[in-house]
Structure formats: structure tokens, C-alpha cells
Amino acid sequence: MTSRSVTLIDVARAAGVSKSTASNALGGSGRVSEATRRHVRDVARELGYRPNTAARSLRRSSTGAIGLYLPRTGTRLDYYMNLAFGAVERAREDGLDLVLLGPHTASGPGLASRVDGLLVIDPDIEDPSVPHLLSADVPVVTGERYLGGGAAPSGAVVCDNAASLTALLDHLAERGARRPALLVPGSGSDWAAALHAAADAWSRREGIEVIVRTVPFAATPAQAEAATADLIARTPHLDAVVCAPDGAVPGVLAAAAHAGLRTGTDILVAACVDGAAARGSSPRVTAVDLRAAEYGQACAALLSDLLAGTVEPGAVRRHDWALNVRDSTAARSAAVQGRGRGTPAPSAEPGGAARSR
Fold first, then answer.
1. Does any domain span residue 56?
2. Chain-centre distance of CA 208, in angstroms?
3. I need a surface site. Which of 4, 9, 185, 278 has the fewest CB within 10 A?
4. Rounded CA gap, 223 and 208, in Å?
5. pLDDT by residue (tens digit) across 103-162?
């Protein structure tokens, strides 16, 4: 085997250790015993391993830490906290500390001297800190793509959010919905832009208009309640509401209750992000599980691989989702089913079923 064909994975397999342990052993970092470090280096020498110099050139510092930047309002949301815990867990496995960056810290000078790499989650084109982060002199992995211009990230982990909303709308249509609405942020982030595009494409495909109402990225329950109450008042025969922002779904339920509508029968309610609010509400709300902790782990894993030189810059990895069906879409009354266009939906299945890609 020539030196050009030998990868870090080859070294790890031959040494009988994990890829992260091999990387730490060869890089002189992490919690690796001296005996293991010597063993891995001996194996690498015997195989003729040479680090990827192009990827290594991305690394301008060796602080043993990576930075995590969340949307400005994200730190109060269940989804982002679970994502952060997942990133911390994976970073620790690779011998790296994780530093949570605030807006002022992220845009300040000298960032490259404090961290070896960056995770930038759901970057929004209206966030002034994001261009500074992307142009930092370290590898950057984004959670979802960045829709703005300027420097490109070193890698990205993406979820097919258009497919997840399409599956959710298909499910609502199967339950008899013919007049659905979507509460969604503006199209400044890849996630929200995908939801807008999916709603439009689904409307054209099905001949059923999805009424789109723009709300803040981190809409509160009170903001969601006000938007839903206005939709109910202005939209005859509204029969389903999909809430995109994490944590805002209790407001949708409250608005329906105040209007005298029974969730799950008179009106269906669903969420684009499965979190504590959706799982703990009454009734429990059907939602897309984006597997936040695993998503954070995937982002940290890609950044770790970029730092170790085991993947080339520009790598994009996919992340799976699942649709968790619960009581909020379990059934519809015959009277409401008969209001819309087309054939009434079949009888509802028992709640709690799961559907994934």
C-alpha cells in the first residue's frame, strides 16, 4: 500500500482503535495513553501514512476547543439545547472542548486563536455575526446551508426539510385536511426557505392551498396564539395548522380551544420540530423529529474529521428525520371532513405511529 492510499481509517483499523483515538494519538491531543499513542504512531509509520496536507492547512490553531454558534434566540429553545448537548458529547469523544459563542464573541477579533474550528447552526442571512464566522481562519461546519454570499463553509450537515414538511402535509390530507395553514419564519435560513418552497410545491401538486403566515424564527406561544387566532377568524373552514417554530405549538392549541375547536377532530395541529412542547401538550402533537442530539453529534463529527484531515473541505453529510404521529391528528369529524374539496379522508389510524424516510 502506498503512502497516498493510506487513510486515517486504515491506521485506526490496523491499530485496533477508533478513528478519533487514532487522530488524537497522531495529533498529540486528547485523552490517549502514552502506550496507545506510541502504538498508533508505530502502525502509521509502518503503513506509510501521511496526513492530508490540504486539510491540515485549514487548521491555524491548536487550542483543543471548537466553538458552537446558535441562532440568536436559539438558546431558550428545547431543540437547540439538545443539539448542543449532542455536539458536546461528540466533541468530548474526540478530545475537544466545546465553547458556546454569543453574538459579540462570534464577531470579535482573534476568534481563530481561541478555537480550532466552528459549528454554525441554522445560519440566517439577517444575522450579522455569520459572515464573520464563515471568514474566520478555521474550518467551519454549518448545520444546514448558508443562503448568503461570502466565504463558503468547510462542510455542512443537512436535513431534507422540504421532504419532512411534504410528508407532514400528506399526513394531514390523509386525515381529511383541505384548508391547512403554516406558521413559518421568513426565508432567511435554509430550514425556513425549504419549508416555504415545500408548502408552495405541495399546494400546486395537490390543488390545495397552504395558507402561509410569517412568524418570528423563535415565535413564543403568545405570538403563535395571536397568529392562529387571526387565521381562525379570517379563514373560513380552516381545518389544520402546522407550527414551524420550536416551542410555539401550545399557542396554536390555546387559540383553537378559545375558538371552541377540538384539536384532533375539528382542527388538526402539527409541528415541524418535535420537542418538549409537542410531546408534553394535551393532546400530544404530531411532529417531525429532527433528532436534535444526533444532529449535533453529526455536525461535531464532521468538524472533527475536517480537523483530522480525513475528509476534504466541502463535504456535505445528510441527516435523517422521522414523523411522529400523535393524538392531535388522530381523527376528524365527518362534518369537517365534508367541508373540503375532493374525497373525504379515510378513518384515522390509532395515534403514536412513526413514519420515517
1. no
2. 28
3. 4
4. 26
5. 766 665 667 678 999 999 999 999 999 998 998 889 999 999 999 988 899 999 999 999
Measured CA to CA, the distance from residue 309 to residue 19 in angstroms comes to 11
Question: Domain holding 96: CATH number?
Answer: 3.40.50.2300
Query: Is 238 inside a domain boundary?
Result: yes
Please indicate, yes or no, whether residues 179 and 268 belong to a single structural domain of this protein.
Answer: yes
As a whole number of angstroms, the distance between CA 339 and CA 353 comes to 27
- The CA-atom distances, in angstroms, between 20 and each of 11, 173, 304, 320 are 11, 46, 8, 23
Same domain, 231 and 107: no
Residue 141 dihedral angles phi and psi, to the nearest 5°: -110, 130
Give the chain's domain count.
Answer: 3
Written as nine digits, the cell of 278 is: 409537542
Domain shared by 235 and 199, yes or no: yes
The per-residue pLDDT for range 51-88, each reduced to its tens digit, is 654 444 444 447 889 999 999 877 778 999 999 999 99
57 within a domain of the structure (yes/no): no
324 Rama sector, left if φ>0, alpha if ψ -120 to 50, beta otherwise: beta
- Whether 151 and 202 share a structural domain: no
Q: Which has the closest alpha carbon to 178: 205, 204, 210? A: 210
As a 3-state breakdown, the chain gives helix, strand, coil percent values, each rounded to 5, of 45, 15, 40
Taking CB atoms within 8 Å and a gap of at least 24, the contacts of 41-50 are 43/11, 43/14, 43/15, 44/6, 44/11, 44/15, 47/1, 47/6, 47/10, 47/11, 47/14, 48/1, 48/2, 48/3, 48/6, 49/3, 49/6, 49/7, 49/8, 49/10, 49/11, 50/3, 50/4, 50/6
203: its cell numbers: 399546494
The grid coordinates listed for 249 are 405549538
- In this prediction the pTM is 0.77
Grid cell 411534504 in the structure block, residue: 166
Do the beta carbons of residue 85 and residue 44 sit within 8 Å? no
Residue-number span of the structural domain to which 47 is assigned? 3-51
Instruction: Classify 37 in phi/psi space as left (phi over 0), alpha (psi -120 to 50) or beta.
Output: alpha
